[in-house]
Design brief:
Shape: rod-shaped
Helix content: over 70%
Distance between the termini: 150 Å
Strand content: under 5%
CATH architecture of one domain: Orthogonal Bundle
Protein name: t-SNARE coiled-coil homology domain-containing protein
Organism: Araneus ventricosus (Orbweaver spider)
Strand order of the largest sheet: 1-2
Oligomer: single chain
CATH class of one domain: Mainly Alpha
Radius of gyration: 60 Å
Order of helices and strands: HHHHHHHEE
CATH topology of one domain: Non-ribosomal Peptide Synthetase Peptidyl Carrier Protein, Chain A
Length: 264
């Protein structure tokens, strides 16, 4: 009897277990189905969000690229405009420089022509001076009113130092005065002051006073170092020295044109 009761209970328990198992399986399936649907729905929404985000990024990228291209275009236009203005200014400056160079070259040629003409005149005068004796006429414009020079002659009684000092302070080459005029006036003064002296003495003193009266220090020094004994030689040398100085200071000046070539 007990065995029968135990067997029935066992069969009932098994039925309940089977029913519970089937119910549990059905519930689990429904739960899993709901979870799966939610996961699929979430994945779909996530995919949609990603697509929208990607689309927004593409739109933003396009906007930024368009803005950058516009800015770059404006900068290029501004730079090109500046370059054009600079090129115009450079061309204008080149034209101005060319005009200035042409004017400077023209002035240089005019000065060179004048200087060469003066040098030619001086050389001609030197040749004439060397071919004729030294005999300069007295220039009335250079006559001095100092009685100490006109009336004083060295007679051997007056103190030589006093006499020479009086003569030294009376004559000096004036600005613009030529050496020829200076030599002529020195010779005239020597004839007045040393009329009683021998010719060779007057010549030596004339050279000394002529050299002392020369205004240009270089010409004076070089002429003095030559130690001439006659006025004609001293005058000829000093004039040649002045011509050489003018030639040295008027050497050709070269300019460069736009092509970089030198022209005179």
């Amino acid at each position: 009897r007990d065995k029968e009761i135990y067997g029935e209970r066992t069969r009932e328990n098994r039925k309940r277990d089977a029913i519970w198992t089937r119910g549990n399986e059905k519930g689990t399936g429904r739960y899993e189905s709901r979870i799966g649907k939610r996961i699929e729905q979430g994945q779909a929404e996530m995919k949609k969000g990603q697509e929208e985000m990607k689309k927004g990024q593409e739109e933003m990228k396009n906007q930024i690229q368009s803005h950058v291209e516009n800015q770059v275009g404006e900068i290029k236009d501004h730079v090109n405009s500046c370059i054009e203005r600079i090129e115009d200014d450079v061309q204008s400056m080149k034209r101005d420089i060319g005009d200035v160079k042409g004017e400077v070259q023209r002035k240089i040629e005019e000065v060179e022509e004048k200087v060469q003409g003066k040098i030619g005149d001086l050389e001609k005068r030197l040749c004439e001076l060397e071919d004729r004796p030294l005999n300069f006429p007295a220039n009335p414009e250079l006559t001095y009113s100092r009685p100490t020079v006109k009336s004083l002659t060295f007679d051997g009684q007056t103190s030589w130092i006093v006499f020479k000092t009086q003569f030294d302070v009376t004559r000096r080459q004036k600005p613009g005065e030529s050496l020829q005029v200076l030599a002529a006036d020195v010779e005239r003064l020597m004839n007045l002051a040393y009329a009683e002296c021998p010719q060779d003495v007057r010549e030596g003193l004339a050279v000394q006073f002529f050299v002392d009266a020369i205004r240009d220090e270089d010409t004076q020094l070089c002429t003095r170092l030559m130690d001439f004994t006659d006025l004609k030689s001293a005058l000829s040398y000093s004039m040649k020295y002045e011509v050489s100085k003018i030639s040295m200071h008027t050497r050709p000046i070269r300019l460069e044109d736009n092509a970089g070539k030198k022209k005179r």
